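User: Structure tokens for this complex, please. No commentary.
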Amino acid sequence: MTFLPQLLRRASMVSLIVASSLVLAVFYNFYARGKSAEEFETYIPSARVAQHRAIAKVFVSPDESQVEGAVKFDFPECSDRQLELLKNQLAKLPSSSSYGVKEDLIARAYEGMNSYRRANCREFVFAVDRVLRILSLSQNKLHGDTVDRLIVQSLTEDVAWLRSLPCLYGRPSAQLSLIRGPLSACYKEGVALSVDASVTSIKRLAGIAYQRYVNEPAVKQSLLRRSAVMLQLDPYIQQVLNNIADCFRQSSNCHPRIRPLITDLQGATVVVTNPHNGGILGLLCIGQKCTKNDLEQFDHYAALMLEAPMASTAKLFYALAFAQDSKVSHRELELQIKTSGQLDPLALKRNEWWEKTAICDSSSQADCRRAARAQQAATDLFFNIACNPLKESCGRIGVMPRESRHFASMGRFAASTDIAAYRSKTPFIPWVAYDSIRQGTLSASKFDSVSYSNTSSAVQSVIGSGDNRISALGLAMLSGNLYQLSRGSALRRPNLLVDIDQASHRDDILAPSSLRRAASVVYSGMTRAMVSSEPGWTGDGTGHRAFLEAFERSCGTDCAIAGKTGTVTLKDPNFPGTTLFTSVANLGELGRAPDHSQDEPNLIALGVIAFPVDPSRVNSGHLASRLALRIVRVLVDGL
Amino acid sequence: MFLPKANESPDFQFVSILAQHPELIQPRSEEPIAARFCSNSWGPSLELVDCRSGVISKGQTAIFPWGGAEALITPEIEIALQQRQLRLERLRSLVEASAIDKNLLFPIQSLLEKRLVITNQLLNRSDVQNIQSYSNIFSELLLLDGYRYDFLSGKFIPLRYDIVRALEKEANYVERIERTKLALVIAPYFVFLFCFVWLSIGFRARNLNIRLLVCGMLGLSVFGLLICADAAVRFGAQGSVYSLNPLSATLPNQLLWIAIMSLLAILLVKILSLVEANGLRSFPWVASKVNYFYRNIKFAHLVFLGTLSIAGAYKLFSPAVGAETLKVIVCVLSGVLLSQHGREVFLVRKYVPNSFSFRSFWESLTPLDGILSTPIMIHRLFLRSYLLFVFFGLFTVGMTAFGFGDLGGTAVAVCIVLILTLLLYGWPLFTCAITLGVIAVSLALKTTKVQDRLALMLEPSSAAVSDFARLITFEESLQPYGQGIGALRWCNELGVCVPLQVLSDYMPIVVSASVGRTVSVLVFLMIFLGSLFFAYRALIFFASTNSRLRVVVATAFFLFVSTGVQTVITFFGNWRLLPLTGLGVPFMSIGISSIVAGYLAVCIMLAYDLCQSTRRL
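Assistant:
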């Protein structure tokens, strides 16, 4: 039996060492290592990301990624097929260099990838394929940062476990349709599936909106309460706008009414809204401006962000101010809106009336509140949000529930002007004097600097120059809310997603009655802008020609469309010749076939900004209004 | 009460429709439509074609009619599409008309609808924008048939858990789910019978601790079965990745394995009892064969047979079966060596203390003529079989680690060899072996595979695969008490599911997610300390008996040790204190690899105890 103690002694010593190590390890696991689940919620394979970045760096900036010594295109581990695939990938390289140089690039990419972690041929071909697919997402050359972001995005996995994802519904027809969200959890009685072809046109945009909404901190944090939201985009309207994007890509699918305009357009942004509820029904953003500054990731949502100088559309804010002033003739105001100034040869300058009226030039200036009222009207209509003090987010507005970082912009109007400065005895200098200073025949130093500055600010803002900016969304909402006010209805905030429980409930924001009365005058002026010349006033409405061209008839006095044009001066360094158009159209009254679903909105508001290929080409006319009215015509007639 | 309800499974509901309409299940077409479409575009040989983009290699001539890829949808493809359309429409109408909970079938309905829309678009040439592009059509055809295209190999691979597989005869989906349904019904009765049989045998044991051992084994097995049933019914139901439950077959399979192992174990108990009682005299033919085997077979033969069996198990079956075979064979050989030489080595050490010096060890290895010294003779006597065993150990470990990539099985085998070395030859040789082990581990650390495993352990949220990141959020989000047995959320709403090896490799995490981390630590301690305790008991039995079962009891000792080591490796791997090795939790994880060694060890101890009881009586 002496054999046993020796065996046991050895066994117990090992057991003791093992057991104590285990206790320490268990202790360490539960007490010393304290990472929370949140730290693991996003999985980013850093080594793979680094490898992909190394490949992308070689492809995007070949000159910066030189490695020492010559690198051979030699991959002994690769099968025949993998080698052929690599050679085919050479053709897709975004470099215009020769085949030999491209071979060198591939070899350098392999070196770069292996510097992080040894990769086999399969992994390499796969990584090159992924990088090339990312690079081909844009027709433009992507920036290194953008490529990096896209690489991380494509390799990242959201592994949060208990999050209740929101349900995204749409209403392409009378039936509610589930577009995104966990199927079982989002199922409701009577809900259709989003696979229906009727929602194909909005699928991509719905995906982007959903992704953005899901990543909102407030939505992310609501672990247990599931939110259900409705997407306001209208599949039919979006289909028409998508067709314009196809036209821009030279597709044979282009609608004949749109095709003639395309050659004149360098780009355009269009937003269609429903004036009754502020819902964003359709979006379009085409051209280089939509892909610059990382906007490409937003697809057509870039239309909600891109801004342009207000040009004459700013006159609508002043028009609201003038209409509240008993000293301004309503008829004259309407006619001034119609032609966006005076075309009468007796008047020396087209905007003279607007500029003079803005600074109360012909009456007592001491109590001149017009500029202040115009600014107030813009604020009432949801412009200038978060502009006090002026910051980067000035003019942005939330279009989703619980949105924390607003990406959509309405615009800013006289946002930097201090209203208090208008409250002096002589807030402005005479218009003639200001004009002389502008012409360079008089020195500004002869006048009080505050008065001069006030005058300059008022005159600049009435013609929409200076730092005044508006987006296509701002344009659409401007018309839409003017329509609402003119009918005595409440103002509407723009919205892309709404909580489904509140989809029918309208967030009523009643404007002061003086503003509502003023709006009916302004809206009437906008209606006149679409008709031809009238007795006693020189010139056709600014939108008349575009209407005539689109509908092949004139717009009568009971025209179911109202609008206002704007054109940025050719001297503008960034937006020369850019045209803007804001409008409200009643598709039913314009002759839309009655077979359209009753759920499709008949009344729409449009905001269009068009960037011309050649700003100096006068023949192309007012591109924004031409495009807008052709869109309206296609919506009326059908694709 | 912990079993999930059958009506929680979309698969069960779906099968109830399919079972009534067998005409919907048809043989899989010889090649997917997407492959036909690709060859229509690029010619019949697809070896050097990337079907996704249609890039041509090695000068193949394109027959792609530029100006609309929809033209490539030939009448032949159209016929195939029409056939699918008819089946899908029929199925959709059946799903819509069924009285089953719509909430449950909504995801399946959505999948059917999606495929129908694609079929209609392709057949009617509608949505022109989409179908003008070759690559769009190709990817939609792939989706339609539930295939994946591996552009690196040019192969079309059927997605195993795609809804299309449910409509293919070859997948046996209906039969599989019907089996799971049946398993769910019989599971409570099975558990009752299983417990009854084992307890009735176990409670005949003389020692209380053997009774506790049987109870512990039963408890762990039933706990594992309940988790397995939950996954078989509900896995994937919350996510969108798997349209069919990939773990549905685990419950019937696990019931079958447990039943087979229980029967074999009970049979083994009986055989061992007979051997111990009368040395198989009641069966003279068997006794003569065993005696013949015992006289003629040498350790070298056993080593050879063992190596062959291990290689065969890895090659012919699966890594899991291979690992279990490796573990059992290493334990058996260790048991044989220990029982053959244990006592002799002890006596030699006692009476010839210098015999185990390094010098005599080297001298024993060199051929010498003439009279040999006692230490050299002793070395030649004992070390031959030990070195043979070490050679076997190194060979199999190398084979499993590098040939079959099984780190878990290797680790357990190495631990067994080390413990045998310590028990037989003491600390000096053990230290040498440990030093060699450390060198081997240092070399292994240089390999990409081990580095990946280490990265997975240390930085799971940025490692090469997302398995651990998913598992950690899965487990952490359900603390401190877990979500309960039979109610686990296997997938999140983003469509991310826990890895499919969750019922084998990641069982500790599932236990923690089910009943909380504290209970999972208790389960670990119970298995580990239990294994340690019963290994100790087996060692006492081995050293204090002259029974015919000495070899078997020594084997049981190593089996318990291997169970303990496996428990540590698995739990610590799951807790990220060790690199993950792919081993399961003994008795709990699914598959044969978690039950054979454990059941064998329990039944040896039980048989030994029963024999002792009979002898005393």
